[in-house]
Amino acid sequence: MNEDEFEKQVGNNDDFIEDIILSAGRNLSFEKRLKCLHQSDRIDQLYGCLRCTGFEERIGWLSNLQSYELFNEERRGFVSALNLYSIGEVGDRFEVSLIYPPYFYVETKLGREKDVYAYLSKRYHNRCLSFDLIAKEDLGN
After folding, report:
1. Domain boundaries, the chain
2. Which residues contact residue 34 at a Cβ distance below 8 angstroms, ignoring those fewer than 6 apart?
3. Considering Cα of 85, then 55, then 79, then 73, what sign does the dihedral take?
4. Which cofactors, if any, are listed as required (predicted)?
């Protein structure tokens, strides 16, 4: 497929790359983010990479991965996901999206970890899926 045919089916590639960069910063409107997702799916289909949505077992070799967001119809919102691109046993290409909950780390003063953990788990028990106490090393110092 040449570049003109690609632009006819997908649109201007420069605009698409710009949209992806903005989408990562979440500066896009709801409609624009949804349009980017549909455009990304069309590009994957043009390159022969089909999205697996069922629960069928497939064997393949992981060839690439990238962060992604999916639209959740039930909640009418976006969820974080990881797209796993694979090459199947017969040379076919497919992708699987793995949804994961957002997370963040909180740094505490030494010796106060358990106090902060207890406070956060008590204060936000109904808003968070889980709390974990994890030791990390700050490589910046």
Report:
1. 3-99, 103-141
2. 71
3. positive
4. [4Fe-4S] cluster
pLDDT computed for residue 21 by the predictor: 41
Beta strands at 60-72 and 77-88: parallel, antiparallel or unpaired: antiparallel
pLDDT score at 30: 79
| 66-79 average pLDDT score | 80
* Helix 13-24 / helix 30-46 crossing angle, nearest 10 deg: 130
The CB-side HSE value for 109 (13 A sphere, CA atoms) comes to 2
Q: CA gyration radius for the chain?
A: 20
Q: Is the pTM of this model over 0.70?
A: no
Residues 6+ apart with CB under 8 A from 100: 80, 81, 82
